[in-house]
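For the sake of transparency, this paper describes our internal protein records without simplification. The tokens are whole numbers drawn from a learned vocabulary of local backbone shapes. One such record is reproduced below, unchanged from the form in which we store it.

. . .
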Amino acid sequence: MGECAYFCKLQYDSDNSAKKAAKYFKRLLKEAHEVHELYQSHRTSEEHSVDNQFFWKEVDENYPTVTAYLQSAGLYRKTVNDLSGSLDLGCDQDEDPCANGSVVEYYAQNVWHLSNWTLLINFLKSSTKAIKAVWSTEENGDNLESLQLYQWQDIVKTVLRQKQVLPLLRGLDTELDELIAFNIQKKGKKSNGYDSRD
């Protein structure tokens, strides 16, 4: 069974929000580790309703954060086999999610290489009010340090919205000069709301 490192970053509006989110993420991971073990013990090649009933009874009674996660992911009360990959969020030996300023970072060493963390990230964005979130794996050639919350295009668009900064940026880069000129020209014309450069 192939495993690799997975990692994510979530941006919040303040350091305090990030600390709260890291605690919530830690609770979710603790529950997910336990439910993953329970899941593995009830997983079968065929659907057995008794196993599924017992599994969901245990989850409902003991794991409220995982229940909320699975509900948001559309996996609540599905067969046990339908949960494949959705609960593999790392192991007990991994370090806890860490708030680094207003960013929460998490690195999981050994995750099934076909796991998809999109459901996890969407749940965390919604439940903890993250402004932005990204995830990747070492199989994509990424690592936690290189994982970027914002693409350069996002940064340029934000800078271009600040009129007082535009004159200071001229002459730094040809492509940036073109974007500045386009932005200034666009502001002088009546727009229909569509910008093909966005």
